[in-house]
Every structure is written in C-alpha cells, then in structure tokens.
UniProtKB/TrEMBL annotation:
Domain DJ-1/PfpI: 4-167
GO cellular component, one term: cytoplasm
CDD domains reported for this sequence: GATase1_DJ-1
Signal peptide interval: none
Protein name: DJ-1 family protein
Organism: Leptospira yanagawae serovar Saopaulo str. Sao Paulo = ATCC 700523
Pfam families hit by this protein: DJ-1_PfpI
Length: 188
C-alpha cells in the first residue's frame, strides 16, 4: 500500500520546492494531499496561483505517513503563524511519523522544538533567522536526517530531497525507477 503524505501550502510558499516534491512523490505512486486554510487560490512566492486538494479541517494526521513543509520566506512565516499546521506537526512528531522541511521551513520545526538542542538540521543559509535562539545544530549539508526529521537546503536540492523522501517511503527500486524517468544530470 502506497504511503500518504501531507503538504501544507501557505501563501508565499516556494513553488519549486512544493511542486517538485509533490510531483516526484506522485510519480512514485505516493498519495500526496496538499492542504491549505481555505479553498481559495494560494499565491506562491513567485506570484503563481495554486489550489490545495483539501483544507486543514478536512484532514487528520492519523491518515498520513509523513508531512513535508515547503519553504519560501513568506511561506515559512505563514507556516509559523498557522496553528493548524502546528497541531498537525505535533501529532506527527508524537506518533513518530516522518516530518520533512526544505529551505526556510526547518525554522517551523525549530520553533515547535521538533528540532531542538543539538539535533542536526540544514536549511537555506540566510542571515535572517526566523526563530532566533531556538535549538538545533545547523550543518549546511544538502540533506540532513535525524530521528525521522528530514531537512534540505533549498530549491536547488528539491529533486534530490524528493527522491530521498521517496526512497524512505517506498524503497530504492521505486526511487530508481522514478529517478530514471526524470532524466536528471548524472552525478559521480
């Protein structure tokens, strides 16, 4: 049975990160549900317009295996302000389900103490720390995983992060099949 993944889309989310993650996982037959506060169109960071599959009130954490937060500076600020996202994340964390965040979005996990103390994480290397004083140890790696929490550095790592998450959820064979179909540049 394929995994189910929840992806919240808040105004200002980084399009490349959200869409690449959703697309790659769906190519791997993962059921991905995007979610937002309302049924209204969501304006992303580059002014593209998107519609979420469901609203927060229509989803339950118990129905999903993982939750992935796309970044974008304004999108992350909106994730930080969204209580329903916090409730879902706490539920996922308490149930020891996979939680992933890319670019600026690991700030949300630090604010909620899902990443704390010396937990390794990565994020977009910005001079603006949205959650100054919160825990975690920044590594600067392209992808970092610790205790079922997975973080990635930014839009340029979206394909590798999506493939990493796909392998975690569905296995190496599924990931390799999807990767081959993407025609990504070969890395040595």
């Amino acid at each position: 049975m394929a995994s189910k993944v929840l992806v919240p889309l808040c105004p200002g989310f980084e399009e490349m990160e959200a869409i690449i993650l959703i697309d790659v996982l769906r190519r791997g037959k993962v059921e991905v549900v995007s979610v937002s506060k309302t049924k209204e169109p969501i304006i992303a960071s580059r002014n593209t317009i998107h519609l979420a599959d469901k609203t927060f009130s229509e989803v339950k954490a118990d129905d999903f295996d993982a939750m992935i937060l796309p970044g974008g500076l304004n999108g992350t600020k909106n994730l930080l302000a969204e209580g329903e996202v916090h409730s879902l994340l706490h539920s996922f964390h308490n149930s020891q389900k996979h939680i992933a965040a890319i670019c600026a979005a690991p700030a949300v996990l630090r604010k909620l103490k899902i990443i704390s103390k010396e937990d390794p994480y990565t994020a977009f290397p910005s001079t603006e720390d949205l959650v100054k004083g919160e825990g975690g140890k920044y590594t600067g790696n392209r992808i970092e995983s610790h205790n079922r929490v997975h973080t990635s550095i930014g839009p340029g790592s979206a394909f590798e992060f999506a493939l990493y998450i796909l392998e975690l959820l569905e296995g190496k064979s599924v990931m390799e099949t999807v990767k081959q179909g993407l025609q990504l540049p070969h890395s040595e």
